[in-house]
């Protein structure tokens, strides 16, 4: 299957439902909300899947884009998709591992934008939000978007502050910021 991102660029995806690319409508909504907040920024894509969100960030000028994905085939696909998009001044990295445990390997790095999209039935929402806060991965004034089912409530995770939640059919995006 082929997926298209900004500029009608094609990305490869894996067959089946092992990875679930973020719906085009939700992807477009997120980048409309974060309009102007991606260019020149550091981007972290948690549960990267096909890498479509990070690819979109690359196309919109993010300078440092990191994906975390647990499945090896998906990691290879993300790397392949991003190699074709990254400009010489952009840094890309794909980290294989499970959230939240793998996040400790990113200690010392801060990200301006973090996108977190685990399987909706996953129990990693709370622990991952806690790890993001504990390891100081979200830069001051940074933004975190969490994709989830609209009926799922996300736990509070100080110092991250829930700003708003937007619902798009069977998908919700909850936005947190780092004060």
List its traits:
two-stranded antiparallel sheet, 4 helices, 7-stranded mixed sheet, Rossmann fold, alpha/beta, 179 residues, single chain
Nutshell version of this structure?
It comes from Prochlorothrix hollandica PCC 9006 = CALU 1027. Keywords: Methyltransferase, Transferase. This protein is 22% helix and 32% strand.
What does this protein look like?
InterPro entries: DNA_methylase_N6_adenine_CS, RNA_MeTrfase_RsmD, SAM-dependent_MTases_sf. One of its GO terms (molecular function) is methyltransferase activity. There is one protein chain. The chain is of the alpha/beta class and 179 residues long. It has a single domain (2-177), classed as Vaccinia Virus protein VP39 (Rossmann fold, 3-Layer(aba) Sandwich). It is 22% helix and 32% strand. The chain has four helices and nine strands. Strands 5-4-3-6-7-9-8 form a seven-stranded mixed β-sheet, covered by helices on one side. It has a two-stranded antiparallel ribbon with strand order 1-2. The longest helix has 12 residues, at 72-83. The mean pLDDT is 91.
Number of helices: 4
Poorly predicted runs of 5 or more residues: none
> Over all CA atoms, what is the radius of gyration?
15 Å
CATH class: Alpha Beta
Strand line-up across the major sheet = 5-4-3-6-7-9-8
CATH homolog superfamily? Vaccinia Virus protein VP39
Summarize the main sheet: 7 strands, mixed
Keywords: Methyltransferase, Transferase
GO molecular function, one term: methyltransferase activity
Protein name: Methyltransferase
Organism: Prochlorothrix hollandica PCC 9006 = CALU 1027
